[in-house]
Amino acid sequence: MKTFSHKSAPGFTLMESVIAIGVVAVLLTTFLAVFGPASQSIRRALSAQDANRLQTTLERELQILREGTDSDFQSAFAKAFDWIENSGEADTAVLLYNYRGDPKDIRPDQSLEAYDRDGGQSGREFLLQSAVRRRGDSDSNLEKDLKQVQGPIFYVRMTQLVFDPQDGALIPGEHGQISSMHDEGEVANDIDDYPGGMIAFAADFYALKSNNINYIENLDLKDDNSDGHPDVFGKPLFSRNLGVRR
Predict the structure, then answer these.
(1) What is residue 93's DSSP assignment?
(2) Alpha-carbon distance 163 to 182, whole Å?
(3) What are the start-end ranges of the H helices in the chain?
(4) In order along the chain (246 residues), what is the average pLDDT of each group of 10 residues?
(5) Which of 92, 202, 217, 226 has CB atoms 3.0–4.6 Å from 86's, for a disulfide?
(6) Which residues contact 85 (CB under 8 A, 6 or more apart)?
(7) Could you tell me the end-to-end alpha-carbon distance of the chain, in angstroms, rounded to an integer?
(8) Under 8 Å CB-to-CB from 201, ≥6 apart: which residues?
(9) Burial class of residue 228 in the structure, from the number of CB atoms within 10 Å of its CB (0-12 exposed, 13-18 middle, 19+ buried)
(10) Is the alpha carbon torsion for 228, 231, 233, 234 positive or negative?
(11) How many separate helices (H) and strands (E) can be counted in the chain?
(12) Pair 58, 96: CB distance under 8 Å
């Protein structure tokens, strides 16, 4: 009669398994320590590139009057004056974003209606549209746009730049007010009191955490520590010095 011997398959002992798990844990921790900050920098850089493209949209928006939403302004310069002066208020916060717009449906203010269907082919059924909206001007359109936002959404806080005779350069003035660029302390209450032919301003871009309308309606823009930035956002992701002319 033949006899068969059974040999157990080679495997890891308990000690070897514990050592292997420990090595993997060390490698994973090292990987996150080395590449984690790098990946965050990449995400910040990509967001800054988005804001850079939207900068042009902001400049263009401050040079036009839209039918319906801007009817209270006598000129595009008056609109820019008001937007810069009140950009730090939650009720008049300026938002920049890209959204899916319907090229077959144009609103009275000449912006594209938000594309509200699932799927669709970019360039045919919908167009990726850059937009600047101020809260309170056309909140119904803003709410529709927010549901179709593609990519990050930014809040932009604008502060006039005034001339500093000591440094011979333009520096941020008092946020929330417009004054003569050369007469320190002479505050303009409205566009008729402003003597200048242009307004130079710093635009600080902050990436928002959500495009949800409830989040947008409850933005906390307080600057209790007086560092020039909303406390909940910290330093801006992206900044540009810009200007508008009469």
Answers:
(1) -
(2) 6
(3) 14-61, 76-85, 139-146, 213-217
(4) 51 58 54 46 58 85 90 92 93 93 92 89 88 88 92 92 83 87 73 87 92 90 85 87 91
(5) 92
(6) 176, 177, 178
(7) 109
(8) 84, 158, 159, 160, 161, 241, 242, 243, 244
(9) middle
(10) positive
(11) 4, 9
(12) yes
Secondary structure element (H or E) that encloses residue 224, with its range: none
Question: Could you tell me the sign of the dihedral formed by the alpha carbons of 37, 41, 43, 47, in that order?
Answer: positive
Residue 191's CB is within 10 A of a number of other CB atoms, namely: 19
Q: Which of 72, 93, 89 is nearest to 191 (CA)?
A: 72
CB of 101 within 8 A of CB of 115?
A: yes
Report d(CA 234, CA 79) in Å as an integer. 28
Residues 241, 161 contacting (CB under 8 angstroms): yes
**Model confidence over 200-245: pLDDT tens digits?**
999 999 989 899 999 998 999 988 888 888 988 888 888 899 999 9
| C-beta of residue 36 within 8 angstroms of C-beta of residue 110 | no
Cα 73–Cα 185–Cα 206 angle in degrees, nearest 5 = 60
- Residue 7 has which token pair? 């040999």
Helix or strand run (H / E) with residue 114: strand 112-114
Using the structure block, give the residue that is written with the tokens 């060390």.
26
The token pair at 187 is: 């505050």
- Residue 177 CA to residue 89 CA, distance in Å, equals 12
The dihedral formed by the CA atoms of 120, 121, 125 and 127, expressed in degrees to the nearest 10: 110
Structure tokens at 169: 């350069």
Joined tokens for residue 21: 């798990």
What is the rounded CA–CA span in Å between residue 199 and residue 162? 9
